[in-house]
Specification:
The chain is of the alpha+beta class. It contains 3 helices and 8 strands. The protein has one domain: Roll (2,3-Dihydroxybiphenyl 1,2-Dioxygenase, domain 1), CATH 3.10.180.10. Helix content is about 20%, strand content about 35%. The protein is globular, with a radius of gyration of 15 Å.
Amino acid sequence: MTAFYHVCFAVPDIERAMQDFQRTAGVEWSEPAAGKLGEWDYRIAFTRGGPPFIELIEGPAGSPWDASAGARFDHLGFWSGDVEQGSRRLENEGLPVDFSGCPHGRPFAYHRMDSIGARVELVDVSLQAGFLDRWHPGGTPMPFIDEISGG
């Protein structure tokens, strides 16, 4: 099993992207949720039906999810048993940190993976129960990268 659980697109218009995905691929969406990280307000939505999920995120210019130049593939998301240790591992493997939510009290980090022109996100597994409650009620726990044992 893999700790991969979502693919994310940064979009300038979340409703339009949701409608386009629904019309062309038949996916169903949860209602978008509003959030704030640091100085940035954003909106986020995930597909229904279980992993792997499609995530859409709409953020303002200058934010980590800036799509003012147009919609884009943003990242692949993975659960991690220890985001800080996982971030060190990814940096050692040549994937520099692009943005960390940790200083904002949010245990996740984006790392640039230039070979795919996007980022990889590590999300602390401690957030998984809340994620399941909000986006996939009744869903079973998903695997995570065990940074301690290397698995």
